[in-house]
């Protein structure tokens, strides 16, 4: 099944009408109307594709290194329309190699870290998240962006939640689904699929994940598991391009309500 997404926030807004349906139902209904556009993908606006007379992202070879993966993602996201299945499959084809990403993997004993790897020409952010034993995120949303999560070391647990229906009253949030994402597997997430929390369930092993967010964002909403109450949180980077981010300059804003990884 093809999953076409427009490169703007309209997608997630459109998906809301399918919020009662399963993941595959959402994909089917959302992207069917875009199918004919995919067949005429040469109109994506990418100069190379126009010259070749057809869109060539499906011709990309499997990335053998993280650098290859980044190069391929740049080509894919140069298009106006992005195929979610293709991105997910392309990221799956990269087989994690510690040598590729060790310079970005920065751990903190107190909380998990977000480490920027590539800014994707403004179309996406690629980052590596490092999870010490038993560290986890808050329950959070994704600011109408598309999230691809690939485990590159260890394994993580993903808990899915529905959006709270009533912001005035307090209701404990309980996961509707819990799953494990193993090394080299890729998960897709966006606001229309709900909320999630990611954690390293291991008390003996670290975990490392590679995340792609498109479009990039620097604020999301986090939720109190006990009450369902929500608040805005700035997303911050522990490091950028392998170098520690100066303290107090992580989010580009001075007033950080609460720094949250995602
Ligand atoms: Fe997330």
UniProtKB/TrEMBL annotation:
The family this protein is said to belong to: Belongs to the cysteine dioxygenase family.
Keywords: Dioxygenase, Iron, Metal-binding, Oxidoreductase, Thioether bond
Recorded GO MF terms: cysteine dioxygenase activity; ferrous iron binding
InterPro entries per the UniProt record, alphabetical: CDO_1, RmlC-like_jellyroll, RmlC_Cupin_sf
Cofactor note: Binds 1 Fe cation per subunit.
GO BP terms in the entry: L-cysteine catabolic process; taurine biosynthetic process
Organism: Dreissena polymorpha
Residue sites binding Fe cation per the record: 140, 142, 196
Gene3D superfamilies noted in UniProt: Jelly Rolls
Pfam families: CDO_I
Covalent cross-link (3'-(S-cysteinyl)-tyrosine (Cys-Tyr)), residues: 147-213
Name assigned to this protein: Cysteine dioxygenase
Organism domain of life: Eukaryota
Top-tier EC class: oxidoreductase
Cofactors: Fe cation
Enzyme Commission code(s) on record: 1.13.11.20
Pathway named in the protein's UniProt entry: Organosulfur biosynthesis; taurine biosynthesis; hypotaurine from L-cysteine: step 1/2
